[in-house]
Write a structure and sequence with these properties.
- The strands form 6 sheets. Strands 13-14-10-15 form a 4-stranded antiparallel sheet. A 3-stranded antiparallel sheet has the order 6-5-9, with no helix packed on it. Strands 1-2 form a two-stranded antiparallel ribbon.
- The chain starts with a strand and ends with a helix.
- It is built from 23 helices and 15 strands.
Length: 554
């Protein structure tokens, strides 16, 4: 462990790696300071330290200050590692870890080095972190980011640390069954692809796939593209456009989806289960997505596909800790549309939410000029696509592609939408104009997304920045809301000394592992704390469900 409280002066305490008991006793010497609620703890990626210290029976208390998160708020699109920050802001190059430990397969671990070889590196780490804190502080103040930093991002660190430590139980048997069933489906699709192609080939090889589709089967016509290396481009976007030309293309897309599902989740998840407690512990990343949303790795829970039946099956394998517990899922319903209604102040949209109407049916009624009770499922589907598409600045071309309708019809739908929701159009235009002037946009709490390409002469680059100008404040505000809810729920569970644990956060959803006898207490309180996290001019709706696995609960 290393500590620093004056710039240029730091201390290193070697913890004996071979003797667990001695290590534990030594760490306890610092318990009083680390658990003191009045002492601020400053760190670079401090969540890692919190999780490690929890293993030594220390629950770090008091205000936290993470220099990585400070920089993330100041420059969300940059990288945030300490060496880069030291070079950029302190004009100083720290000792690299590779100088100390070597690299590649011969790299040593820190415990193999004598303390005299480690102390300079360790002390420098603490010193640089304190100096970065002093550098970033006035910048956070100047950019109006102090509240977001101190009230949202830093308190969330401890919450995520608790979630990572708690982990989630996995039903390995269910995954093994899923693996067998996926293998069968993949083989069946493979056979159909070979029949259509009139030959066997390696479907996973872009080169062979391109030759079969474009040389042998002559698909694509003038739309064929090649990569820089001269082979055919066979990315998902390209194949999706060809899917209507021949059945083989959709089969290839299905094959890709199932093989990815099997390798990334079904076969990989059991390998990631911790031997100590038989649970899966994902790592939440606070400083990766520039929008403010959380991401997760090992495994990436945000990318579990839920649009397909096979993808949803994976959620079945996430289960409560034992038969006395149940999973509770709580998710924000249409949060981004509600934020759009708040930002744009569109009377029609706000009224639909305030009256608790089906927003997609009510949009369809307006756009297609029919009474709500005459809205067909197809009309509602189109309205839903445009409702969510508008948030991302969808074009007539994009809408036509998504709905598989002519571009003219898509343009008419968008035009009709803006006639019925004029304030939404005004919000979008003003968001783009404001971004052009200041080259950034902000969420309700002042989280910034810099759009330095918004005035680019290149139409594609400029268009991307314009879509971000509309979407980033909405997506970022949604991220801020769920983060505040997580902090408030975690605090309440601790204050009430309840055994319920928040175990997963995915997009707009929180999942809890709840003792059955606590369900009646926690369910209404979680709903209330989610609804009131950041009051808007439209009400929040929370979808709640319970079950003996994540799929059943959602």
């Amino acid at each position: 462990m290393s500590f620093c409280y004056l710039p240029g002066e730091a201390y290193y305490i070697p913890v004996p790696p071979q003797d667990e008991e001695a290590a534990f006793d030594l760490v306890q010497e610092f318990k009083e300071v680390l658990e003191s609620p009045s002492i601020t703890k400053i760190g670079q990626n401090i969540k890692y330290d919190l999780v490690v210290l929890q293993r030594y029976g220390i629950d770090v208390q008091g205000p936290l200050y993470d220099t990585m998160l400070a920089h993330y708020l100041l420059e969300p699109d940059m990288r945030h590692n300490m060496d880069l920050l030291a070079e950029t802001y302190l004009n100083y190059s720290p000792i690299s870890i590779e100088t100390l430990l070597g690299k590649g397969k011969h790299q040593l671990t820190m415990d193999k080095l004598p303390p005299l070889q480690v102390y300079e590196y360790a002390c420098e780490d603490a010193d640089v972190t304190l100096q970065l804190k002093n550098y970033f502080d006035p910048l956070l103040e100047k950019q109006g980011l102090k509240r977001l930093f101190h009230d949202v991002e830093n308190p969330l660190l401890a919450v995520l640390g608790h979630m990572e430590r708690a982990g989630v139980s996995i039903d390995a048997e269910a995954l093994a069954e899923s693996s067998i069933s996926l293998e069968t489906s993949i083989k069946e699709i493979e056979q159909k692809i070979f029949e259509h192609a009139g030959m066997e080939f390696n479907i996973g090889s872009p080169k062979q796939l391109g030759e079969v589709l474009f040389d042998k089967m002559q698909l694509g016509g003038s739309k064929i593209k090649k990569t820089k290396t001269g082979q055919y481009a066979t990315g998902e976007e390209i194949l999706s456009k060809l899917a209507f030309e021949h059945e083989i293309v959709q089969l290839i897309l299905d094959h890709r989806q199932l093989t990815k599902l099997k390798s990334t989740y079904v076969d990989a998840l059991p390998q990631l289960v911790c031997a100590e407690d038989n649970r899966l512990h994902t790592s939440y990343n606070q400083a990766v997505a520039a929008t403010g949303r959380l991401s997760s790795t090992n495994p990436n829970l945000q990318n579990i596909p839920i649009r397909t039946e096979k993808g949803r099956e994976i959620r079945k394998a996430f289960v409560p800790r034992d038969e006395n517990h149940v999973l509770l899922s709580a998710d924000y319903s249409q949060i981004e549309l509600r934020i759009m209604a708040h930002f744009s102040n569109d009377a029609t949209m706000k009224e639909a939410f305030q009256k608790g109407q089906d927003i997609h049916a009510s949009t369809a009624a307006k756009v297609f000029h029919v009474p709500v009770d005459q809205v067909t499922s197809d009309m509602r589907r189109k309205a839903k696509t445009i409702n969510f598409g508008i948030i991302y600045g969808i074009s007539a071309f994009g809408l036509a592609e998504r709905l598989a309708i002519p571009r003219r019809e898509a343009a008419d739908i968008i035009e009709a939408y803006f006639v019925e929701f004029p304030a939404v159009k005004q919000y979008m235009d003003s968001a783009i104009n404001q971004a052009r002037e200041q080259e950034y946009v902000e969420t309700l709490l002042g989280r910034r997304r810099y759009l330095r390409d918004i005035n680019s002469r290149n139409q594609n680059i400029r268009g991307y920045a314009e879509r971000n100008a509309i979407n980033a404040p909405i997506q970022g505000t949604a991220a801020d809301i769920i983060k505040i809810a997580m902090i408030n729920i975690d605090q309440w569970l601790r204050d009430e000394k309840l055994a319920t644990r928040m175990i997963l956060q995915v997009h707009d959803e929180l999942v809890f592992d709840v003792p059955k006898e606590e369900l009646e207490i926690v369910q209404p309180k979680i709903e209330e704390l989610m609804k009131t996290a950041l009051p808007l001019s439209v009400p929040m709706e929370i979808g709640l469900g319970t079950g003996d696995n994540w799929l059943a609960a959602h």
